Amino acid sequence: MASQSAQNAKRARELQKTMDAQQKRLQSVTEPFKGLSREQMTEILMMAQRFKQQNQEKEKQQRVEREKQRQMRSRGMGGMER
Length: 82
Fold this sequence. Notes:
Layout: H1 2-30, H2 38-80
Region (Disordered): 1-82
Protein name: Plasmid recombination enzyme
Organism: Escherichia coli
């Protein structure tokens, strides 16, 4: 029974430590946004969404370009085997 109690206490300390670390991390992420108006927050979120979309489009274009390069290399190698 005592060992179970000790395990529970250890688990509680570990959970508290994890929770404290998560709160600290959350605070560091939210700190730059404190004091902004609702409109400013909306603008920032919209800007972040545009950046995300731009990154996705850029990544898609890079995949297309890499595929074109692969196709060109495979055609080039096929021509050298003749």
